[in-house]
Protein backbone atom coordinates (compact mmCIF):
# COMPACT_ATOMS: atom_id res chain seq x y z
CA UNK A 1 0.00 0.00 0.00
CA UNK A 2 1.20 3.50 -0.77
CA UNK A 3 0.67 6.70 1.13
CA UNK A 4 -1.66 9.42 -0.07
CA UNK A 5 1.04 11.83 -1.18
CA UNK A 6 2.67 9.35 -3.46
CA UNK A 7 -0.67 8.60 -5.07
CA UNK A 8 -1.35 12.28 -5.61
CA UNK A 9 1.92 12.65 -7.42
CA UNK A 10 0.68 10.13 -9.92
CA UNK A 11 -1.54 12.77 -11.46
CA UNK A 12 -4.89 11.02 -11.21
CA UNK A 13 -7.74 13.45 -11.58
CA UNK A 14 -10.84 11.33 -11.43
CA UNK A 15 -14.50 12.03 -11.89
CA UNK A 16 -17.19 9.37 -11.83
CA UNK A 17 -20.06 10.60 -13.93
CA UNK A 18 -21.02 7.07 -14.99
CA UNK A 19 -21.54 6.03 -11.37
CA UNK A 20 -24.18 8.76 -11.07
CA UNK A 21 -26.38 6.87 -13.53
CA UNK A 22 -29.13 4.67 -12.06
CA UNK A 23 -27.86 1.60 -10.16
CA UNK A 24 -28.96 -0.84 -12.84
CA UNK A 25 -26.06 0.25 -15.07
CA UNK A 26 -23.18 -1.00 -12.91
CA UNK A 27 -22.02 -2.91 -9.89
CA UNK A 28 -19.36 -1.64 -7.53
CA UNK A 29 -16.52 -4.09 -7.76
CA UNK A 30 -12.89 -3.93 -6.67
CA UNK A 31 -10.17 -5.72 -8.64
CA UNK A 32 -8.93 -8.98 -7.14
CA UNK A 33 -5.28 -8.68 -6.02
CA UNK A 34 -2.64 -10.81 -7.74
CA UNK A 35 0.58 -12.51 -6.61
CA UNK A 36 3.41 -10.49 -8.15
CA UNK A 37 2.79 -7.71 -10.64
CA UNK A 38 5.40 -6.84 -13.21
CA UNK A 39 5.22 -4.02 -15.75
CA UNK A 40 5.64 -5.28 -19.30
CA UNK A 41 4.88 -2.21 -21.37
CA UNK A 42 3.87 1.37 -20.69
CA UNK A 43 2.67 4.08 -23.07
CA UNK A 44 4.57 7.26 -22.19
CA UNK A 45 3.00 9.52 -24.81
CA UNK A 46 -0.51 8.45 -23.81
CA UNK A 47 0.38 9.11 -20.16
CA UNK A 48 1.35 12.66 -21.11
CA UNK A 49 -1.93 13.16 -22.95
CA UNK A 50 -3.84 11.92 -19.89
CA UNK A 51 -1.86 14.17 -17.55
CA UNK A 52 -0.64 11.29 -15.38
CA UNK A 53 2.91 10.95 -14.15
CA UNK A 54 4.56 8.25 -16.24
CA UNK A 55 7.64 7.92 -14.04
CA UNK A 56 5.59 7.42 -10.88
CA UNK A 57 3.21 5.03 -12.60
CA UNK A 58 6.10 2.88 -13.76
CA UNK A 59 7.28 2.51 -10.16
CA UNK A 60 6.10 -0.30 -7.87
CA UNK A 61 3.18 1.69 -6.52
CA UNK A 62 1.94 2.54 -10.01
CA UNK A 63 2.28 -1.02 -11.20
CA UNK A 64 0.23 -2.14 -8.18
CA UNK A 65 -2.62 -0.03 -9.58
CA UNK A 66 -2.35 -1.54 -13.06
CA UNK A 67 -2.41 -5.01 -11.53
CA UNK A 68 -5.47 -4.26 -9.40
CA UNK A 69 -3.56 -4.65 -6.14
CA UNK A 70 -4.20 -1.04 -5.20
CA UNK A 71 -6.96 1.40 -6.09
CA UNK A 72 -5.69 4.80 -7.26
CA UNK A 73 -6.51 7.85 -5.20
CA UNK A 74 -9.97 9.06 -6.09
CA UNK A 75 -10.74 5.78 -7.90
CA UNK A 76 -14.18 4.21 -7.62
CA UNK A 77 -13.99 0.77 -9.20
CA UNK A 78 -17.09 -0.63 -10.87
CA UNK A 79 -18.13 -3.11 -13.53
CA UNK A 80 -20.55 -1.98 -16.22
CA UNK A 81 -23.73 -3.81 -17.20
CA UNK A 82 -24.65 -4.37 -20.82
CA UNK A 83 -26.30 -6.80 -23.17
CA UNK A 84 -25.62 -7.59 -26.79
CA UNK A 85 -26.32 -9.53 -29.92
CA UNK A 86 -23.50 -12.03 -30.26
CA UNK A 87 -23.41 -13.45 -33.78
CA UNK A 88 -27.04 -12.39 -34.04
CA UNK A 89 -28.24 -13.83 -30.72
CA UNK A 90 -29.31 -11.58 -27.86
CA UNK A 91 -27.59 -12.18 -24.48
CA UNK A 92 -27.12 -10.45 -21.14
CA UNK A 93 -23.40 -9.74 -20.75
CA UNK A 94 -21.74 -6.96 -18.76
CA UNK A 95 -18.05 -6.50 -17.98
CA UNK A 96 -17.11 -10.01 -17.00
CA UNK A 97 -13.44 -9.17 -16.83
CA UNK A 98 -13.18 -5.41 -16.87
CA UNK A 99 -13.31 -2.86 -14.07
CA UNK A 100 -13.64 0.87 -14.59
CA UNK A 101 -11.45 2.81 -12.14
CA UNK A 102 -12.85 6.19 -13.06
CA UNK A 103 -12.80 8.92 -15.68
CA UNK A 104 -9.54 10.80 -15.91
CA UNK A 105 -10.04 14.51 -16.61
CA UNK A 106 -7.00 15.52 -18.65
CA UNK A 107 -5.13 18.84 -18.62
CA UNK A 108 -7.05 19.67 -21.84
CA UNK A 109 -10.27 18.93 -19.99
CA UNK A 110 -11.07 15.78 -21.93
CA UNK A 111 -12.64 12.82 -20.16
CA UNK A 112 -11.32 9.27 -20.59
CA UNK A 113 -12.38 6.02 -18.98
CA UNK A 114 -9.50 4.24 -17.24
CA UNK A 115 -10.37 0.58 -17.26
CA UNK A 116 -8.57 -2.58 -16.21
CA UNK A 117 -9.12 -5.59 -18.46
CA UNK A 118 -8.48 -8.91 -16.73
CA UNK A 119 -8.58 -7.82 -13.04
CA UNK A 120 -10.73 -10.68 -11.71
CA UNK A 121 -14.33 -11.71 -11.48
CA UNK A 122 -17.30 -9.32 -11.44
CA UNK A 123 -21.03 -9.95 -11.02
CA UNK A 124 -21.18 -10.29 -14.83
CA UNK A 125 -18.46 -12.93 -15.16
CA UNK A 126 -20.89 -15.81 -15.73
CA UNK A 127 -18.70 -18.92 -15.96
CA UNK A 128 -15.49 -16.96 -16.61
CA UNK A 129 -12.52 -16.31 -14.33
CA UNK A 130 -12.40 -12.57 -14.98
CA UNK A 131 -8.81 -12.93 -16.10
CA UNK A 132 -6.82 -12.37 -19.25
CA UNK A 133 -3.53 -13.74 -20.51
CA UNK A 134 -0.43 -11.95 -21.70
CA UNK A 135 -0.58 -12.71 -25.44
CA UNK A 136 -4.08 -11.32 -26.08
CA UNK A 137 -3.49 -8.25 -23.88
CA UNK A 138 -0.28 -7.38 -25.73
CA UNK A 139 -2.15 -8.04 -28.96
CA UNK A 140 -4.79 -5.48 -27.98
CA UNK A 141 -2.02 -3.05 -27.04
CA UNK A 142 -0.29 -3.41 -30.42
CA UNK A 143 -3.46 -3.35 -32.52
CA UNK A 144 -5.13 -0.43 -30.75
CA UNK A 145 -2.00 1.71 -30.85
CA UNK A 146 -1.50 0.84 -34.52
CA UNK A 147 -5.08 1.87 -35.25
CA UNK A 148 -4.56 5.14 -33.44
CA UNK A 149 -1.48 5.84 -35.53
CA UNK A 150 -3.53 5.06 -38.65
CA UNK A 151 -5.83 7.93 -37.56
CA UNK A 152 -8.73 5.61 -36.80
CA UNK A 153 -10.84 6.36 -33.72
CA UNK A 154 -10.06 3.70 -31.13
CA UNK A 155 -9.71 2.86 -27.50
CA UNK A 156 -6.06 2.96 -26.49
CA UNK A 157 -3.68 1.09 -24.24
CA UNK A 158 -1.77 2.62 -21.35
CA UNK A 159 -0.06 -0.40 -19.80
CA UNK A 160 0.16 -4.16 -19.65
CA UNK A 161 1.31 -5.91 -16.48
CA UNK A 162 1.74 -9.59 -15.76
CA UNK A 163 0.19 -10.92 -12.58
CA UNK A 164 2.64 -13.64 -11.60
CA UNK A 165 -0.29 -16.06 -11.75
CA UNK A 166 -1.27 -18.46 -14.48
CA UNK A 167 -4.63 -18.42 -16.16
CA UNK A 168 -6.01 -21.78 -17.13
CA UNK A 169 -7.08 -22.07 -20.74
CA UNK A 170 -6.34 -24.98 -23.05
CA UNK A 171 -2.90 -24.73 -21.47
CA UNK A 172 -1.65 -22.63 -18.56
CA UNK A 173 -0.83 -19.13 -19.73
CA UNK A 174 0.78 -16.15 -17.99
CA UNK A 175 -1.92 -13.89 -16.54
CA UNK A 176 -1.94 -10.20 -17.44
CA UNK A 177 -3.98 -7.03 -17.02
CA UNK A 178 -4.36 -4.35 -19.70
CA UNK A 179 -5.17 -0.75 -18.79
CA UNK A 180 -7.53 0.45 -21.49
CA UNK A 181 -8.38 4.07 -22.21
CA UNK A 182 -11.64 4.99 -23.93
CA UNK A 183 -13.78 8.03 -24.63
CA UNK A 184 -16.31 5.84 -22.80
CA UNK A 185 -17.35 2.21 -22.69
CA UNK A 186 -20.97 2.92 -23.58
CA UNK A 187 -21.94 0.41 -26.22
CA UNK A 188 -24.93 -0.31 -28.43
CA UNK A 189 -25.28 -3.19 -25.96
CA UNK A 190 -25.58 -0.72 -23.06
CA UNK A 191 -28.67 0.72 -24.72
CA UNK A 192 -29.98 -2.78 -25.45
CA UNK A 193 -29.61 -3.56 -21.76
CA UNK A 194 -31.46 -0.37 -20.82
CA UNK A 195 -34.28 -1.04 -23.28
CA UNK A 196 -34.72 -4.62 -22.12
CA UNK A 197 -34.30 -4.30 -18.34
CA UNK A 198 -34.66 -0.63 -17.51
CA UNK A 199 -37.69 1.64 -17.31
CA UNK A 200 -38.23 4.27 -19.99
CA UNK A 201 -37.00 6.82 -17.46
CA UNK A 202 -33.78 4.87 -16.92
CA UNK A 203 -33.32 4.60 -20.68
CA UNK A 204 -33.82 8.34 -21.00
CA UNK A 205 -31.21 8.95 -18.31
CA UNK A 206 -28.69 6.87 -20.21
CA UNK A 207 -29.52 8.69 -23.45
CA UNK A 208 -29.22 12.11 -21.80
CA UNK A 209 -25.94 11.09 -20.20
CA UNK A 210 -24.58 9.87 -23.54
CA UNK A 211 -25.61 13.08 -25.30
CA UNK A 212 -23.91 15.13 -22.60
CA UNK A 213 -20.74 13.11 -22.81
CA UNK A 214 -20.38 12.44 -26.53
CA UNK A 215 -22.76 14.70 -28.44
CA UNK A 216 -23.02 17.90 -26.37
CA UNK A 217 -23.79 19.90 -29.53
CA UNK A 218 -27.23 18.26 -29.84
CA UNK A 219 -28.30 18.84 -26.26
CA UNK A 220 -30.60 21.72 -27.02
CA UNK A 221 -31.99 20.32 -30.25
CA UNK A 222 -35.73 19.92 -30.56
CA UNK A 223 -35.45 16.17 -31.06
CA UNK A 224 -32.29 15.23 -29.12
CA UNK A 225 -32.81 11.46 -29.25
CA UNK A 226 -33.29 11.48 -32.99
CA UNK A 227 -30.13 13.59 -33.21
CA UNK A 228 -28.35 11.04 -31.02
CA UNK A 229 -29.33 8.26 -33.41
CA UNK A 230 -28.21 10.37 -36.35
CA UNK A 231 -24.91 11.18 -34.64
CA UNK A 232 -24.11 7.56 -33.84
CA UNK A 233 -24.96 6.49 -37.40
CA UNK A 234 -22.68 9.20 -38.76
CA UNK A 235 -19.74 8.23 -36.56
CA UNK A 236 -20.08 4.53 -37.29
CA UNK A 237 -20.37 5.21 -41.03
CA UNK A 238 -17.11 7.11 -40.70
CA UNK A 239 -15.40 4.50 -38.52
CA UNK A 240 -16.27 1.49 -40.61
CA UNK A 241 -15.23 3.24 -43.83
CA UNK A 242 -11.85 3.88 -42.21
CA UNK A 243 -11.54 0.19 -41.34
CA UNK A 244 -12.27 -0.77 -44.93
CA UNK A 245 -9.73 1.70 -46.28
CA UNK A 246 -6.88 0.03 -44.39
CA UNK A 247 -8.12 -3.56 -44.57
CA UNK A 248 -8.92 -3.90 -40.87
CA UNK A 249 -11.16 -6.82 -39.94
CA UNK A 250 -12.65 -6.46 -36.48
CA UNK A 251 -13.63 -10.11 -36.31
CA UNK A 252 -16.40 -9.89 -33.73
CA UNK A 253 -18.73 -7.01 -34.54
CA UNK A 254 -21.31 -7.97 -31.95
CA UNK A 255 -23.50 -5.10 -30.75
CA UNK A 256 -21.71 -5.11 -27.39
CA UNK A 257 -18.49 -4.42 -29.28
CA UNK A 258 -19.82 -1.29 -30.99
CA UNK A 259 -19.33 1.97 -29.13
CA UNK A 260 -21.67 4.94 -29.07
CA UNK A 261 -18.65 7.28 -29.17
CA UNK A 262 -17.58 5.86 -32.54
CA UNK A 263 -14.32 4.34 -31.31
CA UNK A 264 -13.09 0.89 -32.33
CA UNK A 265 -13.31 -1.36 -29.28
CA UNK A 266 -12.49 -4.91 -28.18
CA UNK A 267 -9.49 -6.18 -30.04
CA UNK A 268 -10.12 -9.90 -29.87
CA UNK A 269 -9.76 -11.86 -33.08
CA UNK A 270 -9.16 -8.78 -35.24
CA UNK A 271 -6.54 -8.82 -37.99
CA UNK A 272 -5.46 -6.92 -41.08
CA UNK A 273 -6.07 -8.35 -44.51
CA UNK A 274 -3.00 -9.07 -46.65
CA UNK A 275 -4.26 -10.22 -50.06
CA UNK A 276 -7.38 -8.35 -51.17
CA UNK A 277 -10.46 -10.52 -50.92
CA UNK A 278 -13.79 -9.26 -49.54
CA UNK A 279 -14.50 -12.71 -48.12
CA UNK A 280 -11.46 -12.67 -45.84
CA UNK A 281 -12.17 -13.98 -42.34
CA UNK A 282 -9.48 -14.76 -39.78
CA UNK A 283 -11.53 -15.41 -36.66
CA UNK A 284 -11.73 -19.07 -35.68
CA UNK A 285 -15.22 -18.59 -34.24
CA UNK A 286 -16.67 -16.86 -37.32
CA UNK A 287 -17.42 -20.00 -39.29
CA UNK A 288 -20.19 -18.45 -41.41
CA UNK A 289 -18.13 -15.38 -42.32
CA UNK A 290 -20.70 -13.08 -40.73
CA UNK A 291 -17.94 -10.61 -39.92
CA UNK A 292 -15.88 -11.03 -43.09
CA UNK A 293 -14.12 -7.93 -44.43
CA UNK A 294 -16.75 -7.27 -47.10
CA UNK A 295 -19.62 -7.78 -44.65
CA UNK A 296 -18.46 -5.19 -42.13
CA UNK A 297 -20.33 -2.23 -43.67
CA UNK A 298 -23.75 -3.99 -43.79
CA UNK A 299 -23.21 -5.51 -40.34
CA UNK A 300 -22.58 -1.99 -39.09
CA UNK A 301 -26.02 -1.12 -40.44
CA UNK A 302 -27.55 -4.14 -38.75
CA UNK A 303 -26.05 -3.14 -35.41
CA UNK A 304 -27.26 0.44 -35.84
CA UNK A 305 -30.77 -0.85 -36.48
CA UNK A 306 -30.57 -2.66 -33.11
CA UNK A 307 -29.47 0.64 -31.56
CA UNK A 308 -32.37 2.49 -33.20
CA UNK A 309 -34.82 -0.06 -31.76
CA UNK A 310 -33.66 0.72 -28.25
CA UNK A 311 -34.48 4.40 -28.75
CA UNK A 312 -38.05 3.85 -29.99
CA UNK A 313 -39.75 4.82 -26.70
CA UNK A 314 -37.86 8.13 -26.83
CA UNK A 315 -38.46 8.92 -30.49
CA UNK A 316 -42.24 9.24 -30.51
CA UNK A 317 -45.10 8.38 -28.18
CA UNK A 318 -46.86 6.60 -31.04
CA UNK A 319 -44.64 3.54 -31.56
CA UNK A 320 -45.62 3.11 -35.22
CA UNK A 321 -44.47 6.65 -35.85
CA UNK A 322 -41.30 5.98 -33.85
CA UNK A 323 -40.52 3.00 -36.08
CA UNK A 324 -41.03 5.14 -39.17
CA UNK A 325 -38.69 7.81 -37.83
CA UNK A 326 -36.03 5.25 -36.91
CA UNK A 327 -36.26 3.49 -40.26
CA UNK A 328 -35.88 6.73 -42.15
CA UNK A 329 -32.70 7.48 -40.19
CA UNK A 330 -31.23 4.00 -40.59
CA UNK A 331 -31.88 4.06 -44.33
CA UNK A 332 -29.37 6.89 -44.65
CA UNK A 333 -26.49 4.78 -43.33
CA UNK A 334 -25.54 2.92 -46.54
CA UNK A 335 -25.22 6.20 -48.47
CA UNK A 336 -23.26 7.86 -45.69
CA UNK A 337 -20.91 4.91 -45.52
CA UNK A 338 -20.52 4.77 -49.28
CA UNK A 339 -19.79 8.51 -49.49
CA UNK A 340 -17.03 8.21 -46.88
CA UNK A 341 -15.58 5.16 -48.51
CA UNK A 342 -15.56 6.75 -51.97
CA UNK A 343 -13.89 9.85 -50.65
CA UNK A 344 -11.26 7.74 -48.92
CA UNK A 345 -10.67 5.54 -51.96
CA UNK A 346 -10.34 8.60 -54.18
CA UNK A 347 -7.69 9.98 -51.83
CA UNK A 348 -5.88 6.63 -51.87
CA UNK A 349 -5.72 7.05 -55.64
CA UNK A 350 -4.68 10.70 -55.54
CA UNK A 351 -8.06 12.01 -56.65
CA UNK A 352 -9.26 15.03 -54.73
CA UNK A 353 -12.22 16.18 -56.77
CA UNK A 354 -15.29 14.18 -57.73
CA UNK A 355 -16.44 12.68 -60.98
CA UNK A 356 -19.24 10.22 -61.50
CA UNK A 357 -17.03 7.57 -63.12
CA UNK A 358 -14.69 7.40 -60.13
CA UNK A 359 -16.55 4.55 -58.52
CA UNK A 360 -16.18 2.46 -61.67
CA UNK A 361 -12.45 3.15 -61.76
CA UNK A 362 -12.11 2.09 -58.12
CA UNK A 363 -14.18 -1.07 -58.59
CA UNK A 364 -12.10 -2.01 -61.62
CA UNK A 365 -8.93 -1.72 -59.60
CA UNK A 366 -10.36 -3.82 -56.78
CA UNK A 367 -11.48 -6.59 -59.08
CA UNK A 368 -8.06 -6.59 -60.69
CA UNK A 369 -6.47 -6.84 -57.25
CA UNK A 370 -8.71 -9.75 -56.40
CA UNK A 371 -7.95 -11.51 -59.67
CA UNK A 372 -4.19 -11.07 -59.27
CA UNK A 373 -4.31 -11.88 -55.55
CA UNK A 374 -2.64 -8.56 -54.80
CA UNK A 375 -1.70 -7.36 -51.35
CA UNK A 376 -4.14 -4.63 -50.30
CA UNK A 377 -1.72 -2.30 -48.53
CA UNK A 378 1.22 -2.73 -50.87
CA UNK A 379 -0.86 -2.18 -54.00
CA UNK A 380 -1.70 1.33 -52.88
CA UNK A 381 1.87 1.98 -51.77
CA UNK A 382 3.08 0.91 -55.21
CA UNK A 383 0.54 3.20 -56.88
CA UNK A 384 1.83 6.07 -54.71
CA UNK A 385 5.46 5.49 -55.62
CA UNK A 386 6.02 3.44 -58.74
CA UNK A 387 3.49 1.22 -60.50
CA UNK A 388 6.37 -0.99 -61.71
CA UNK A 389 6.46 -2.41 -58.19
CA UNK A 390 3.13 -4.12 -58.79
CA UNK A 391 3.29 -7.82 -59.62
CA UNK A 392 0.60 -7.30 -62.22
CA UNK A 393 1.98 -4.07 -63.74
CA UNK A 394 2.67 -5.80 -67.08
CA UNK A 395 -0.80 -7.26 -67.52
CA UNK A 396 -3.11 -5.87 -70.21
CA UNK A 397 -5.85 -5.08 -67.70
CA UNK A 398 -3.49 -3.02 -65.56
CA UNK A 399 -1.99 -1.17 -68.53
CA UNK A 400 -5.48 -0.16 -69.66
CA UNK A 401 -6.61 0.77 -66.17
CA UNK A 402 -3.43 2.76 -65.55
CA UNK A 403 -4.06 4.86 -68.66
CA UNK A 404 -7.56 5.69 -67.48
CA UNK A 405 -6.28 6.44 -64.00
CA UNK A 406 -3.50 8.75 -65.17
CA UNK A 407 -5.93 10.53 -67.43
CA UNK A 408 -8.40 10.91 -64.55
CA UNK A 409 -5.75 12.29 -62.23
CA UNK A 410 -4.65 14.78 -64.86
CA UNK A 411 -8.12 16.33 -64.69
CA UNK A 412 -6.88 18.10 -61.54
CA UNK A 413 -4.62 21.09 -61.17
CA UNK A 414 -1.82 19.31 -59.33
CA UNK A 415 1.16 17.65 -60.97
CA UNK A 416 1.65 13.88 -60.81
CA UNK A 417 4.42 14.38 -58.23
CA UNK A 418 2.19 16.48 -56.02
CA UNK A 419 -0.62 13.93 -56.23
CA UNK A 420 1.74 11.05 -55.43
CA UNK A 421 2.91 12.94 -52.38
CA UNK A 422 -0.66 13.51 -51.21
CA UNK A 423 -1.48 9.84 -51.79
CA UNK A 424 1.34 8.74 -49.53
CA UNK A 425 -0.41 10.49 -46.70
CA UNK A 426 -3.47 8.25 -47.21
CA UNK A 427 -1.71 4.98 -47.95
CA UNK A 428 0.15 3.55 -44.97
CA UNK A 429 3.55 1.99 -45.52
CA UNK A 430 2.94 -0.50 -42.73
CA UNK A 431 0.07 -2.20 -41.00
CA UNK A 432 0.36 -4.67 -38.12
CA UNK A 433 0.78 -7.71 -40.35
CA UNK A 434 -0.39 -10.91 -38.74
CA UNK A 435 2.92 -12.74 -39.04
CA UNK A 436 4.74 -9.76 -37.50
CA UNK A 437 2.29 -9.49 -34.62
CA UNK A 438 2.59 -13.23 -33.96
CA UNK A 439 6.36 -13.03 -34.06
CA UNK A 440 6.31 -10.22 -31.47
CA UNK A 441 3.84 -12.08 -29.24
CA UNK A 442 5.77 -15.36 -29.46
CA UNK A 443 8.97 -13.65 -28.36
CA UNK A 444 7.11 -11.91 -25.53
CA UNK A 445 5.18 -14.88 -24.22
CA UNK A 446 7.60 -17.77 -24.89
CA UNK A 447 10.92 -16.05 -24.23
CA UNK A 448 9.89 -12.94 -22.29
CA UNK A 449 11.75 -11.00 -24.92
CA UNK A 450 9.88 -7.74 -25.48
CA UNK A 451 12.34 -6.16 -27.91
CA UNK A 452 10.60 -7.61 -30.98
CA UNK A 453 7.31 -6.02 -29.90
CA UNK A 454 8.96 -2.71 -29.05
CA UNK A 455 10.55 -2.51 -32.48
CA UNK A 456 7.25 -3.37 -34.15
CA UNK A 457 5.44 -0.70 -32.13
CA UNK A 458 8.02 1.86 -33.14
CA UNK A 459 7.57 1.10 -36.82
CA UNK A 460 3.78 1.18 -36.50
CA UNK A 461 3.75 4.49 -34.65
CA UNK A 462 4.10 6.53 -37.84
CA UNK A 463 2.65 4.45 -40.68
CA UNK A 464 2.69 7.32 -43.16
CA UNK A 465 6.42 8.00 -42.74
CA UNK A 466 7.39 5.59 -45.55
CA UNK A 467 10.82 5.33 -43.91
CA UNK A 468 13.53 2.83 -44.79
CA UNK A 469 13.23 1.03 -41.45
CA UNK A 470 9.60 0.27 -42.30
CA UNK A 471 10.48 -1.58 -45.48
CA UNK A 472 11.12 -4.99 -43.93
CA UNK A 473 7.77 -4.72 -42.11
CA UNK A 474 5.94 -4.03 -45.35
CA UNK A 475 6.58 -7.45 -46.84
CA UNK A 476 3.44 -9.54 -47.14
CA UNK A 477 3.65 -13.12 -45.86
CA UNK A 478 3.50 -15.99 -48.36
CA UNK A 479 -0.09 -16.54 -49.45
CA UNK A 480 -0.44 -19.94 -47.76
CA UNK A 481 0.57 -18.46 -44.39
CA UNK A 482 -1.81 -15.53 -44.73
CA UNK A 483 -4.76 -17.67 -45.81
CA UNK A 484 -4.22 -20.22 -43.04
CA UNK A 485 -3.94 -17.54 -40.39
CA UNK A 486 -6.49 -17.92 -37.58
CA UNK A 487 -7.22 -15.57 -34.71
CA UNK A 488 -8.83 -16.49 -31.43
CA UNK A 489 -11.08 -14.51 -29.16
CA UNK A 490 -9.19 -12.70 -26.38
CA UNK A 491 -8.54 -15.27 -23.68
P1 LIG B 1 -15.52 -10.34 -25.69
O1 LIG B 1 -15.56 -11.50 -26.62
O2 LIG B 1 -14.13 -10.03 -25.17
O3 LIG B 1 -16.23 -9.13 -26.23
O4 LIG B 1 -16.32 -10.82 -24.41
C1 LIG B 1 -17.68 -11.13 -24.41
C2 LIG B 1 -18.19 -11.09 -23.00
O5 LIG B 1 -17.60 -12.13 -22.21
C3 LIG B 1 -17.89 -9.80 -22.28
O6 LIG B 1 -19.00 -9.46 -21.52
C4 LIG B 1 -16.69 -10.14 -21.43
O7 LIG B 1 -16.59 -9.31 -20.29
C5 LIG B 1 -16.95 -11.58 -21.07
N1 LIG B 1 -15.72 -12.33 -20.83
C6 LIG B 1 -14.74 -12.60 -21.72
N2 LIG B 1 -13.74 -13.29 -21.13
C7 LIG B 1 -14.07 -13.46 -19.84
C8 LIG B 1 -13.45 -14.09 -18.71
N3 LIG B 1 -12.27 -14.70 -18.79
N4 LIG B 1 -14.12 -14.05 -17.53
C9 LIG B 1 -15.30 -13.46 -17.43
N5 LIG B 1 -15.94 -12.86 -18.44
C10 LIG B 1 -15.35 -12.85 -19.64
MG1 LIG C 1 -16.59 -7.29 -25.85
Strand proportion: 5-15%
Structural class assignment: alpha+beta
Largest beta-sheet characterization: 7 strands, antiparallel
List the total number of helices: 18
Helix content: 40-55%
Nutshell version of this structure?
With 491 residues, the protein is of the alpha+beta class. 44% of the residues lie in helices and 13% in strands. It has 18 helices and 13 strands.
Give the key terms.
491 residues; alpha+beta; seven-stranded antiparallel β-sheet; two-stranded antiparallel sheet; 13 strands; globular; binds magnesium ion
What does this entry look like structurally?
The protein is an alpha+beta fold and about 500 residues long. Among the domains are: about 5-180, no CATH class; about 190-340, no CATH class. About 45% of the residues lie in helices and about 15% in strands. It contains 18 helices and 13 strands. It has helices at about 5-10, 45-50, 55, 60-65, 135-150, 190-195, 200-215, 225-245, 295-315, 320-330, 335-350, 360-370, 375-385, 395-410, 415-425, 435-445, 450-460, 480-485, and strands spanning about 15, 25-30, 40, 80, 85, 90, 100-105, 110-115, 130-135, 155-170, 170-180, 250, 270. Strands 1, 3, 7, 8, 9, 10 and 11 form a 7-stranded antiparallel sheet that branches. Strands 2-4 form a two-stranded antiparallel sheet. Strands 5-6 form a two-stranded antiparallel sheet. Strand 10 (about 155-170) and strand 11 form a beta hairpin. Helix 8 packs parallel to helix 10 (about 320-330), helix 8 (about 225-245) runs parallel beside helix 11 (about 335-350) and helix 13 (about 375-385) runs antiparallel to helix 15 (about 415-425). It is globular, with a radius of gyration of 23 Å. The protein binds adenosine monophosphate and magnesium ion. Adenosine monophosphate binds near residues 128, 131, 252 and 266.
